Every structure is written in C-alpha cells, then in structure tokens.
Amino acid sequence: MQEESKFKGKRLRLNFLNSHEKRDREIIYVERTNDKYKKGNKIPFLFEFLLALSVHSKGLSLIDESLSKSLTIFYPFAGRVNDALTIDCNDDGVLYTTSFISSKMVDLLANPQPKIELFYHFMPLLPPFCPNLSDRPSQIAIQVNEFACGGIAICVCFNHLFIDFATISVFVKCWFEIATNNGYDGTNIGIYPAVSLFPQGSEKPMPDGMFLAAQRTLLREGRGTIRRFVFEGSAVSRLKEKAKSEHTPNPTRVEAVTGFLWKHLMAVSTVVWGSQQPSILSHAVNMRRQMMPKMLSEFFIGNIFWMSVALYPNMTTDKGAEVESELVRLVRESIVDIREKFVPKLLRNGGYEATHESLEELKEICSDKTLNPYIFSSWCKTCLPDTNFGWGKPIWVSPMGANDVDSSHKNVVIMMDGQTSDAIETWVTLGKCEAAALERDPDFLAFATLNPAISI
Question: pLDDT higher for 398 or 49?
C-alpha cells in the first residue's frame, strides 16, 4: 500500500479542451460495423516520455495547444454521441486533466520491472468520461501526468463506440505532427465518415444488439488478471521458422506469435480444467487494410473492424511445431476470408447480408458450450511508437495495466511492437489460475519473458 501511494498523483487541472477554431454545428453519421460497444467501451493506452527538466514547462503548454488545433481537424471527436448512428459536432470538447506524481518514472518502469498494476492511477476520471460533468460524456479523455524527475506519461482514453484503434492512431499522429511545429497544419487532411461506403436505410436494417449477442458467446465469465510477456526479436524469428508450412511459407511476426500463444493458452486451460477443449480464436481485423483495391484511407473515421473466426477442433497441443504451423494457417485463412468473402458482400446493400451471415455463423460455432474462446487484437505497425512532440519519441507505449478486469476483457490478448527491433509485447488477460500456469510453463518461457524492465 505504501508503494502504491507513491504513484497516486495530485490532480492539478480538470477541464474540457475545445477546438482551436470554431465551425458550424452539424450532425454527422459515423460508421460502426458492429454494436458491441453500445454503451461505449473505454480503451486506454499510455505514452511515457522522459524529459530534461529544462524543457518540461514548455512541453506541457505544447501538449494542450497542439491538441486544441488537432480537434479543429478531427472536429467530430470534440462533439458528443447523439444516438446509435450520429455524432453532434457541438465542440463541447474532450476531457483534459493534469496530475503531478511525486515519484520518479524509473521507479515505475524499471525498478526492477514495470509496475503495470499501478497504471490505472494515470487515467482520467472513469467510467465513463466524467458523467457528473456532462450529460453526454466526452468521446476522448486525456490525462497528462508529470513526474518529479521531469518525465511525462500521457494517457489517452477513447470511447470505442465510434472510434477504433486505427482512427485514434491517426488522430494522435496528427496531434504530434502539429506539436513539432514543422509547418504541418493538417490542411491536407480530409476527415471522411466511413458511412459513405456503408449506406444506411437498407430494406433490412440490422437488428439492434445483434453483434453484441453474438460476441457474448466469446466472453468468459468471471474475473481476469493481466500479464505482460515480451517476445524479443530473436525469439520472434525462431517462432516464424517454427510456423512455416506449405500453406504459410512466410508467416508474419503477428501470425507466428499468435499461433504460439494460442497453442500455450489451450495447454494451460487443459491443465487448469483437466480436459482438452476445442478452441476458437478471433482477431480484430482493420477492414481499411482489407479493401481490394484499397478504398479506405487511414483518414476514414469510424469503428471499422470485424472479427475473424479461426476454429481448432483437434484438441491436441502436444505436437510441437506441427500444431503451431496449423494454428498459423487457420489464423491466416480466417483473415483472408474477411478480405475475399466478407468485404465484397459488406459493400453491397448496406452490408446486411454479410453481417447477418457472419454473425449467424459465429453464433452457431459458439453454441458449443465446451468451446474455449480467445480474442486477439494487434496494435503492431501503428504510428504510436514514432510519435514525437519535438523532444524525442516516447521511451515506451503501452496499454493500461490493472490487477483484475471483468469478463468482457477476459481471454483477451493485445499485441504491440516492443522496444527493440522486431520484438512484440503481448498483454494477456486470463483467469488467475490460467495466468499462474502460463507463468510456470517452461516451453512458453523459452520464448517469452514475463514483464521485463523498460530501457530508459
């Protein structure tokens, strides 16, 4: 408790930050290809910067000035959710808070390892984003945490109702580019609500809550706990070699680590529950990258992802590389199916036929109560590790840590680029028994390191 108290910050400021320039108020439609987050799921991530004290005060003023200018470009984010399909672009602003931490950043990140269970102290007021301050909460909330040593940790939270990770990444990129004062003013950016490609008003509107009902079948009941594992570049290279097969001669980093993790997650589940189970793995797929030819630029905003479905019924995880290559093949094929089968249907007739068929398929697969489900989301190859306010790149970008989470986040894996070349960090949320078994798995730990220190 005494250790935790060192990182409880003193809140210095709380307000709503508005756009730098006013514009006419409007209501816009923003596409979301699912209704999983009907009430809004708050997704936080953290940037850690270590600054010299001489640039500290200037750096803080630069953050909010450039943020305000960015909201002029991404004006829907300063608005409020109006209903299930629209945003009121009223410029009520984003929640912006600052906090002072009397401890040093090195004590948080590298002494001897990151204290990820304390990261929630650096988040804005949740959940949702200050409902007592506004009848309609902010879509984005940001907290700037100042450390006594001169370090700054910026927590960005976004409401997943209309904003996916690709959208928030582009917003952060724009924000940081403006902050560098290199002549970039965002005038070459056009913000395109993706609803223009997914027309509303179909003769068969999607039943309200249909996606949520299907997704519930992927969720495990009970409490979960978060573990951070890092696969260094050399380990990833070895996993890519193990994952090669006739069907996937060139597995990617994400595919190789996904197959390896999936195998070991099934294995620890068998240890805990005493029997082997069939398993399903869903990857959150950014559909901007799946359009052939490419129809959506990175500046199409919305919640534009879909869940791939890979089913492994064999329930055998003791065949080494043979199983891993098979799992990688299943993962790749599930994503290819989205590009070659799902997307073409989605672009016709408002997407009803494609979404209805996909959700019915998911519900049918998940009707097997013995099924062991996992949800993966890759944040690799985004612009976040390269963001720069003008004082250098962040020493680390991470999701937010915690001790326990509810069932909506259990059996979930987030993948990010590591600090070193080709490394991958994985943030794994499991039941406590499964997490403890994974930490003791020697075959798993031959490739993965549990929560190593951050290089500062």
Answer: 398
